[in-house]
């Protein structure tokens, strides 16, 4: 197995993780900044990556910033915001060519690191805040992003199910924030919030490519020294233990032709648990792949769904089942999905299902080694949860999972919420 190991060095309050590999012709940098997911900060946090990508002190206009990326041999700058359990994460990335493969050997590694450091720590300002026109433009963009959620019915139903299932829990918040917060956000306050984040929130900077850790650390030490002076705060892991007292059923009505049936379960299994690999195999057999029980029984045998699958939100201990169905098939689809959950509890798992799932999972994990971004993502999971599991350890753990292990995790899974998005016709009852 190719080298996928990261070496970690702390520079001030920034943790730098480097994977040196000859496999890649480009060098990928990704910086993650973690914040608690909460209502007071969710929209401000969602706005920051977009504002920071508008300009830096040495490239204050969007045109200058684009020109800089062109000068870096067509480097790609990207940013986003997402949630992992009850952590709200900002992501900034830069992909650049490796200078060793270019004829004129420009100092791309050095220039790329300087530029990314500037994007993070030296944004363009105006008075005591961010540049007002950039903040206003990005508020408009974020407003559109939040509003457009309802246009994508699959994502909308998934978010609504989470809101209902995790009511009064931070996880219910949408990672792009709330419309009602946007008006109050102004450039000075947002800049003050940004400074607080950079001084207190954990920052992890990744580098994957044909580079040496010594070279990356030397180049970063000088550039980070003026900024990386705060103290990293600890952001606690979300609790996954959540007793389900009763099944909730929620029906929303919109102008839709196809029903969206989403079911949320509590797995009661932490990502740090020794049972986690068994939960991953459980999800694979239940609904992770085209050979899974949900796909075969709900979609193929009963022809009830256009799609039917399950996925884990491992940091919060949730299992989400998603399906698109004819509205009249609601009850039949719910019944067959419940039957599959019960079959897993009873250990009704064929050897072929188990072996095929393990093989498919092993392939998908191995494929991650060929993509620098996936390698980074996999390692960052260990940083977030405080337990390192290498790719090799995960593959070995999956191979060892037995039917008994799967039954053990299956018996902890509790159905919490059934969410149905349907048309506006018919009776008040979801089924009619």
Structure summary:
The protein has 15 helices and 13 strands. By secondary structure, the protein is an alpha+beta fold. It is globular and about 60 Å long.
Description:
The protein is globular. The protein starts with 6 loop residues before the first strand and ends in a 10-residue tail after the last strand. Helices cover 42% and strands 22% of the residues. α10 (293-301) packs antiparallel against α11, α11 packs across α15 (403-410) and α12 runs antiparallel to α14. The protein has helices at residues 42-52, 62-71, 108-121, 132-147, 153-165, 179-182, 187-200, 213-224, 276-288, 293-301, 330-345, 351-367, 372-385, 391-400, 403-410; strands spanning 7-11, 14-20, 26-36, 76-84, 87-97, 125-126, 129-130, 203-209, 248-253, 259-266, 305-313, 318-325, 414-422.
């Amino acid at each position: 197995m190719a080298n996928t190991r990261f070496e970690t060095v702390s520079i001030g309050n920034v943790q730098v993780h480097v994977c040196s590999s000859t496999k890649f012709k480009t060098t990928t940098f990704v910086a993650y900044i973690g914040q608690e997911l909460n209502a007071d900060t969710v929209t401000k946090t969602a706005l920051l990556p977009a504002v920071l990508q508008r300009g830096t002190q040495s490239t204050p206009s969007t045109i200058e910033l684009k020109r800089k990326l062109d000068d870096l041999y067509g480097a790609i700058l990207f940013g986003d915001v997402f949630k992992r359990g009850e952590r709200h994460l900002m992501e900034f990335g830069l992909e650049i060519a490796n200078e060793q493969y270019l004829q004129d050997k420009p100092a791309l590694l050095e220039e790329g690191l300087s530029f990314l450091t500037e994007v993070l720590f030296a944004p363009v300002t105006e008075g005591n805040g961010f540049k007002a026109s950039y903040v206003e433009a990005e508020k408009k963009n974020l407003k559109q992003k939040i509003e457009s959620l309802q246009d994508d019915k699959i994502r909308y139903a998934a978010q609504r199910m989470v809101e209902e299932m995790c009511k009064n829990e931070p996880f219910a918040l949408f990672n792009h924030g709330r419309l009602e917060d946007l008006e109050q956000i102004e450039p000075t306050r947002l800049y003050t919030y940004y400074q607080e984040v950079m001084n207190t929130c954990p920052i992890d900077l990744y580098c994957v490519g044909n580079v040496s850790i010594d070279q990356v650390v030397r180049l970063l030490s000088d550039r980070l020294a003026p900024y990386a002076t705060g103290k990293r705060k600890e952001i606690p892991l979300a609790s996954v233990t959540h007793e389900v007292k009763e099944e909730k059923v929620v029906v929303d009505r919109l102008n839709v032709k196809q029903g969206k049936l989403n079911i949320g379960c509590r797995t009661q299994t932490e990502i740090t648990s020794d049972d986690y690999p068994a939960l991953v195999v459980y999800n694979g057999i239940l609904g992770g792949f085209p050979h899974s029980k949900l796909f075969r029984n709900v979609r193929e045998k009963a022809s009830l769904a256009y799609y039917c699958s399950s996925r884990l939100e491992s940091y919060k201990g949730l299992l989400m089942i998603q399906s698109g169905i004819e509205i009249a098939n609601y009850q039949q689809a719910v019944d067959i999905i419940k039957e599959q959950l019960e079959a897993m509890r009873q250990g009704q798992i064929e050897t072929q299902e188990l072996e095929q799932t393990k093989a498919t999972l092993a392939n998908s994990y191995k494929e991650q080694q060929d993509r620098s971004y996936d390698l980074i993502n996999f390692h960052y999971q260990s940083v977030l949860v405080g337990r390192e599991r290498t790719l090799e350890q995960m593959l070995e753990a999956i191979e060892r999972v037995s039917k008994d292990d799967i039954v053990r995790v299956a018996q902890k899974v509790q159905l919490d919420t059934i969410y149905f998005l349907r048309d506006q016709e018919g009776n008040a009852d979801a089924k009619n």
